[in-house]
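Class, discuss our next protein.
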Amino acid sequence: MRLRIFHLKRCFPVWGEVIAGCFLALLLIGVLDVYAAVSEEPPVSDEECLGCHDEVDRAPLARSPHKAQVCADCHVGITETPHEEKLPPVSCQKCHVKLSQVFAGSIHAPAEAEVECQSCHGTHAMRRAAELGAEPCRECHGQVTREYLGSVHAKALARGSQDAALCFDCHGEAHRLRSHKDPQSPTFHSRTAETCGHCHADRAIVERGRIPIPQAYQLYQKSVHARAVAAGKQAATCNDCHESHDLRRANDPRSSIYRDNIPRTCGQCHAKEAKAYLESVHGIAVTNGVTKSPVCADCHGEHSIAAARDPASRVSVAAVSKTCSSCHEAQGIIEKYGIPSGRLETYAESFHGLAVRGGSGVAANCASCHGTHNILPSSNPHSTINPLNLPRTCGQCHPGAGVQLASAKIHVAPGFGEHPLAALIRRLYLGIILVTIGGMSLHNGLDFVTRLRERWRADMLGERARSHVAPEVAGRLFERLTVNERIQHLVLLSTFTILAISGFALKFPEGWWARPLVWIERGYAIRAWTHRIAGVLLTLAAVYHLVYVFGTQRGRSQLRAMLPGFRDVKEALWTLAFNLGRRQSLPRFQRFNYVEKLEYWAVVWGTFVMAATGFIMWFQSAVLRRWPLLTIDVATVIHYYEAWLATLAILVWHFYSVIFRPDVYPMSWVWLSGKLTGEQMAEEHPAELDEILATETGARAQAHDDTSKPLSS
């Protein structure tokens, strides 16, 4: 040894001494350890322990995970028996080093709560955490444990379910438990839903446990509550509604989500709304045991609750009426509690209902009139629909019109409380439409068959229609419409088309043909204002036309030619006889035949009626300040059915004359060119052609006479 040290010193003068010193130190430590081991008295054996601690103490240990251990492994320092009464504390950290380090950061660490390992795991009868259930928590958390043992989770555990939640499934790893105030804790407010979702979003667990709402977690994630929590706000999470430990099924009267308890549960956050609800007709009914009366979840939903301004919400402007109708249109509820029926239908067909169906976000719905949580019967003085309060309720949207509305029936529709006058006008219009459009269809059908037959006959016989006018007249163009008149017609065509499309799109927003407009618009105002602007333009065009026909020579002559007379009746009967084969030729029509006159005066009448009723419907508040609601109801009926009459007349009567008639198909181009050939004039307006030619002949004769007279001296 000395030689080696000497050799190191020679080779490494300094480092050699350092290395040699370390080597001697290690050698000294080893010697001391050997001495301590030799001098230390051996621990007592298990046999010696059992001399005092019989098999009653040993048996639990034999069934525990520590069955291979001996007494001295845990109870150190005992060298003789009997030993001192107070022994050094058992240190589990000696074997479980990593767990002890994790446990040091737990809320149960001795520095925090003075909880020892034995407090949960026990001593000799120690069991693994998976076997303990809620028992270890009972001693410190007695009340909470009792609540858990009555919960749906504990009952599932008692039935042998391996998926039932234990304390640590929610609160986190047993040795790493954190306070619910700790942001890292699974039970921290913003993480509670995620914690519950570990089981309730697992399809396999949901199916095995037959959980009644399999998508609860996913639905909650879309809710207004979840979005608020994600934004760092205080909003409801799972345990706010279902309780933290005392979770019970919805059919358990002690459950926080039992039907009768839901208002109180929601009232924890929404106290003002809950108070109003409990005083409402619905809340009083629930208190009195009416199980069909709605509670918060029936209107707002359960897990997927959305804000009222969200289009997906069940209480949004567009959806609230359907939500209310789920009870108010249910036949069983209507019969059992004597609730008036037809409320949804009457609302849907009303001005407000049509606006909402069309996408309006501001039109009145059920809640606008009846209230939201404070719904009361109309007999209650505090009700928003009490006759004394209606002026104020309706005046929110119709300033100054509430007095007229207060005395009128609101929920009316065909067959549901409609005023007799409105009902009479409706029936009259239906009769007029049936007779008028039916007659037009029959007339045009006969005319179509006759003209088609004549054309086929000419083609089969190889005949050519011979013109009854001279060749120089047949190819000549005669002015039918001036540029001014063509522009007027174009404005009428455009505005009427826009009015028809936008108007029926407002009335039938669910129609397949109206859906593109609704989708593009994503609302209601564009269709409404398009309809109104087109109506104003049509009205201005009508005013201009009146100035034209009364203020110009051309207009007055056109008006005189358009006046109906007995000749028109004779020509109509003659045409009918021709179409039935009783006449050999059509009558000789003048500038305007009975078909064109009927069209013109129908347009005049329709424009006046539609403009008058349209402005009444537009300026409802102003009308209601002077006249009763019946005025608007009657105007609405007339406007709607006049629109049908006008549209059908254009399609059946006018389109046939200018498009589908065999001798003009595919179209009469007069509306663009303004002219007819002499041959066309001879077929359609022969009497007018005769007058034109006679006038021209007379004018030429007069001119010839003037030029042939001798000059006076």
Observations:
- The chain has a mean pLDDT of 85.
- The longest helix spans residues 420-461.
